[in-house]
Design goal:
The complex is a heterodimer of chains A (117) and B (954). In chain A, 70% of the residues lie in helices and 0% in strands. Chain A is built from four helices and no strands. In chain A, α1 runs antiparallel to α2 (25-45). Among the domains of chain B are: 270-524, no CATH class; 603-675, no CATH class; 737-782 and 790-947, no CATH class. The chains are: A mainly alpha (117), B mainly alpha (954).
Chain lengths: 117, 954
Amino acid sequence: MELLMASAIGLMTAAGLYLVLRLRTFPVILGLSLLTYAVNLFLFASGRLAVNMPPVLRKGVETYSDPLPQALVLTAIVISFGMTAVVVMMALGAYLTARNDDVTLPPEDDATREGEA
Amino acid sequence: METVAGFLPIIAALPFLGALLPGLMIKAGRNTCAAFTAAPTILALTLLLICAPAVMRGEVLTFGIAWLPSLGLNVNFMLDGLGLLFAGLILGIGLLIILYARFYLSREDPMGQFYTYLLLFQGAMVGIVLSDNILLLLVFWELTSLSSFLLIGYWKHLPEGRQGARMALTVTGMGGLAMIAGMLILGDIAGSYDLSVILTQKDAIQASPMYLPALILILAGCFTKSAQFPFHFWLPHAMAAPTPVSAYLHSATMVKAGLFLMARMWPVLAGTPEWFWIVASTGLITMVMAAKIALFKDDLKALLAFSTVSHLGLITMLLGLGTKAAAAVAVFHIINHATFKAALFMTAGIVDHEAHTRDIKRLGGLRHLMPITFTIATVAALSMAGIPPLNGFLSKEMMLEQVAHTQWIGPAWFMGAAVTLGALFSVAYSFRYIAHVFLGPKRHDYPAKPHDPGFGMWAAPALLVVLVVLIGLMPMTMVGDLVRVTAGAVTGDAAYVNIYHWHGLVPAFWMSVIAVAGGFVLLKTHAPLAAMWNAAPRPEAKVMFDAVTAAATRGATALTDGLHNGALTRNAAVFSVAVLIAGWLAWQGGGLQPPTREMIPITPVPAIGWLLLVVATGLLVVYHRERFTALVLIGIVGLMVSLGFVYFSAPDLALTQISVEVVTIILLLLALNFLPRETPVESTAGRRTRDAAIAIAGGVAVTWLTYAILVRDFAAESISAYHLANSYKGGGGTNVVNVILVDFRGFDTYGEIIVLGIAALVIFALTEAVLRGPGGRWLANWDQPTLPEAGDRHPLMMVVATRVMMPIALMVGAYIFLRGHNEPGGGFIAGLIVAIAFLMQYMASGFAWAEARQRVTYHATIGVGVLIASVTGIGAWLAGRPFLTSDYGYLHFPPIEEFEWATAIAFDIGVFLTVVGAVMLALNSLSSMARRAGETVNVEPMDIDPTREPEEGK
């Protein structure tokens, strides 16, 4: 099972990296989402895997899965929603304002930068 | 003694506190401003004098406050003889400079600023000399660089001032950086960052293999600050500063900071051949070279600047000799140089102020016009030349005596000869200062008619010159004890000091005679020599410095632009590769223990989930250009992740993930409406291959890392056991994850809901900004793409179903919330569920309809949520506990079961409200774009698209 978990995290990382490196905003957003899944799962996995041991205290039960990474990942999931929403809004704002969903700088912006330097 | 030592931090803090006053007081007039600048200085000086008797008795006062003890950084102050001497010079001369500057600055100059900078600088300098902790010393050291930058560049309108300030900051700042490294090495060797400890570790430090690197780095800091060759060039350029600054920083204080540090570190660093060769040689070269240049400078301040460099070289050389007697002479010369050089700078300022020029070629004959200035300048200059019986003579004679017995390179007499040559130049430029400015015939072409200034301006240099004469006549009475105590502090044991005028016909006497005679000859032949000097080519430091900084700037720009050209793509690629390389390097440095955990066997159901996830991820990469398909695929991935959480015993995470998944997809759907429907193929095959290579490398690395972690146990014991053991006992809940969120790590959660609230507000602000800009105008005129749409925008079935589900959904939310402390659930999840319940109404009946029925604003919901969380946290204070400490108990209502309450539940309500508000505000912002884009507003809960005519027969 460890192998499945590791490979799933790795695959999502690879796909996420590839999409983040694309030139338009939408694939970048998708890539960020995939990376978020991968990172959250990785953090979660750092508590090691356990089946049928939820960290809810029961009488007579001695072993539980690690609650700490779960608590950290729970807030991370919610925060990552906030992050995704902000990124989407920025992409939308940029597209509506500049009529362009390119993540690279248009050439004339480069020229301004040179002029200032 | 205890009480007296308590004054030390106050002495260091007074100038900083005082720096607040001038800016406020300048409104009350220039005299008041100066008086309020002088007050903290006088107070600090008084406190210092109260401490002085104890120090003169040989005690070392210390006062310590722990600041960051784990880093070895403590606010420890120490006052011994060396500190007393320097603090006295800094505060005493500082006071004179404040007086002098009051009359020197013109009405147009912003005096409040000047005095603020001056006090900041003064505080930094006092801090350096009183620090007992080298890290604290470094902080003050950097502060002197910064505040001197402000002072040198005080006349912002002068390009020379700005350039000089930048050059000084660059050179001394780089030296400071080197020194930080050196000090850290030193502290590492000694095992402490406290000077009082380091100074006892001579043998350990000098035996360490890191001694030489530490020495070179620390000396780099000292040499740059004290303008030693080859870093001397910044000082003459810093002369663009107002003269009070030059007199203060560049004669008495800042440039002496390097000397101070060499003296401070003398007990542990000096006495080795390395120290002798580096320090003594640098000092000697600086002394002779700068003295020669000073002779040919026509600008009064440039002449004084190079003479300062030369005298600093002299003191450096004395410290470099490494003998106790030489160190005592160095201390004596520090006192003498501070007195005569500050006086000389002030007279140069007076001449400049009155004659409106500092060019020696345009001056001469001033002795009749400015008799008082002439007298002061002549006494000070004769002292600088080393003419008996002034104080400069005494220390020069003792210096020659020391050098005459020292073997440097070449024959035994060589160092003596070199020093005599330096002294000879020194005599020559000192005489020139008198002869070419004040003597000679009166001229008729001065730019302004010179006359002596008012008392206020010449009082300060006059007082210094009185000291010059008195120390010269009665050295032992005036400063004998001070030199003895200071030299004792430098060398580490009691020193015997005897200063006297007549040494007999020793070599030093003859060297002195040669220097004076030769200097006189040089003065007489100055005109032809200067012509030759000016004709000869020589390196210009400023040109070289500018070339070096320009090259460094170009290099930095090229590197920065190469790594970061403004495009996210480049950034992300560089970052990924860098992380991969760093990870690989880290792997090279370590190794792996054998696996310790048994693997969980693979069962069919999770395997199918894994397969779905893998396929969906793969297809996502392939079909990412088709945006709607991509959205469906990422939904599948998110679902599989949620199921993964279910399987691996994380019910809370599963609930959170699935609810977040729903709102995220809705958000992306709304956004997709405005984005282009497809992504064009832009990147070349080569680029795609490169990106794929980076991605695969990253993926393989992460897979391997995760696997390596999963098959091994924790290296150190985890703190989770504590949470499991205390969740019920301490937090009153059995769902450990929720107890961690609202109790153990409540502060983290508190921060996170605030971040979430801010994110929602940012989205709102962004939307408003976009709608008001060109984006909003474009949206208003947007022609919706003509795609087939459903005829009924708000279908009857959906409206009815969501209305029925609304109370159920809210109840589920309340249930999930209430049980959260003991079963999977809690504020985060309940917030998301309730938000989804609201969203369903929005989707079914349209935003306008739903919004018209909405009573509270989402901004307020977020605010109230954060407020409730804060109040709950603060409530713990009332019970005398730290922020967010929770309490719990049980209530019993007869008909119902026993009911548990915990203050944490109030905190969870805050979390809940913030989550609901944030999610709704984000989606509401997006929907406002749709309304701007001309989507018609419906007033009925269910309707059909009014733009579409019903077709015949349907």
